[in-house]
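A quick word before the example. In earlier lectures we treated sequence and structure as two separate objects. From today on, think of them as two lines of the same record. Here is proprotein convertase subtilisin/kexin written that way.
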Amino acid sequence: MQNLPMVLGQVNPDRARNPGLVYDMDEMSYIQFLCHEGYSGSSMAVLVGSKSINCSSLLPGIGYDALNYPTMQLRVKNEQEPTIGVFRRTVTNVGPSPSIYNATIKSPTGVDIAVKPTSLSFSRSAQKRSFEVVVRAKPMPSPQILSGSLVWKSNRHVVRSPVVIFKPLD
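And the structure line, produced from the sequence above:
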């Protein structure tokens, strides 16, 4: 449980005032995520305050989790074969310009994590850049939680995104 604050997105108030990069999400992004998670009909209406949302008429969210969020979590599905998740993310520069962020990956044993591109360059504030993270986890015979991270580092900021790989109890 030592990683629980990291996984839950514990915030450092001093650093939160000047984060460098942010992951933007709007209302439609949340609706797409809820559709991806299987919500529909009246349960969706209760959550978003709308009488009719037809998930099949919406563009699906992008990536494994249909979410543009710092944390990436991969549920291991199979005891015999690797599980692969492709996460697509977009960040907005809210720090100084120009700035370059370089990626560092920390992978737990049995997990490969790769990011493309490995560097994000921003020439102005409010500029957006997208990247893709591929997580490949070896089969897990028993329930467990593993954690790694993707860290974007510039000369002024460190932006950490947790990567959680888990096999739940059956």
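Notice the following. The radius of gyration is 17 Å. We will return to this example when we discuss secondary structure assignment.
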